Amino acid sequence: MMMNRRQALGAATSGLLALPGVSEAFSLGASLRDWLRGGADVIVVGSGAAGLSAAVEAASAGARVTVLEKAPEIGGNTLISGGYFAALDPVRQRRQGISDSPDFFYRQTFEYGGRKAKPALVRRLVENSTESLRWLEGLGMRFKPEVIELYGGHWARCHCPVLPLGQGYIRALSAEAVRLGVKIATSAPVVDLVFRDGRAAGVVVQDGARTRTLQARKAVVLAAGSFAANARLIGQYAPRLQGLTTDNVPSSTGEVMLAAHRHGAALRDMQYIQCLPGCPPGKSHRVRFHSVVSRFIFVNTEGRRFIREDGPRDVLRDTVLAQPHQLAYSVLDDAGFRDYGILIQKEAVEALEAGEAWKAGSVRELAQKMGVPAPALAQTIAQYNRAVRTRRDPLGKSPRELRYTLSHPPFWACYAGMTIHYTEGGLDIDERARCLDAAGKPIPGLYAAGTITGGVHGSNRLGANGLTDAVVFGRIAGKGAALLSL
């Protein structure tokens, strides 16, 4: 699978280690061996939003916490994510005239997930969304004043961070973790778990050519991310998606999930894998022109719209994969382009330079650069603009998202082939974030949160629910691990 987001990752991490106290927390060398000898009350595996949320809550409850990160930098997929956070928000939503409720949020999450999720997990996600939003803001995380409907989100409850992508989450959470005395080690891959008397009691860490054991006096929290960058596992659980690119960080390969499974932790929903528009096989640049539903349209190689842009993500995936060459394009105008953050604009410019995105002063010129019929694309955009003005779309796009015409040159387009984005399956957990065995019983001392888990989203995840899942269940796992009685 081709990775294509290193530059975005580099931009997102610039300045991160300048936070007070963070740089020394990340240095390894002999300090890692000291930490391993000292052990910890709670070990957290992974340093994305789920892992850092768990670490902060566990440390706040008085536990000595060590975070182990496989990659050379903290942040995982959170750092390069779109950064949107789905939550009920009486302040922002009421100000925008948006009606919402826990029951409606629950129904959308459960129904759009094919009724495959565990109801108790969905309810916990929804009911803790607002409080977790406020918790993040209390740590210094900043969101824009208006909520939007994200691609695949199906309602205007998606909060956009002020800092690009997921940088704000990692800055706020890591700063609080370091302030609380959490020890964070990077380039420290966990290769196995340690159990004693049927209880999770530590982890085995690869330290160069050697392995070392770190003891956990209370519990282990697994937040090591998805398996979306593991081509073998993708092929095993979703053969028709094999060969697609992925937008995940290279470390998203699922070894920690598999290690827990070897020790008796159950897996669920492994066949459910979400794709988003991205670079087709053989290409190297992904541009997220699709993020804001009201700003773009999909067209196929004939220059025609073929689906409403606010459809369910699994339907959009299957429809794009059914197109000739499994190919589509995202099209928007300059007003839409300028509405995106600086890093998405940067993605577009890099793709433009590589010949994998296009910019033109007219629709016909854009069509020529894309290689689609110019009359068809011009007619498609004219029809869409008419739909916006009349609030009636022949393909069924919601009137609330028919907000902007595509009429401000220059016009932009990029590839919208499917790229593997999110694995809805993973370790089976209960509403207390405890890992379950094949009989559905909690495994003592073992917790999990974020994309390493299954059961929260079912067969299709709503847009912006991923970070909500990570923070909500990361916090639950951290609290539970710290307060666990020995």
TrEMBL record:
Transmembrane segments: none annotated. Keywords: FAD, Flavoprotein, Oxidoreductase. Its cofactor is FAD. Signal peptide: none annotated. InterPro entries: FAD-dep_OxRdtase_2_FAD-bd, FAD-oxidoreductase_2, FAD/NAD-bd_sf, Flavocytochrome_c, Succ_DH/fumarate_Rdtase_cat_sf. Residues 41-467 form the FAD-dependent oxidoreductase 2 FAD-binding domain. NCBIfam families: flavo_cyto_c (TIGR01813). Belongs to the FAD-dependent oxidoreductase 2 family. FRD/SDH subfamily. This is Flavocytochrome c. The lineage of its organism: Bacteria, Pseudomonadati, Pseudomonadota, Betaproteobacteria, Burkholderiales.
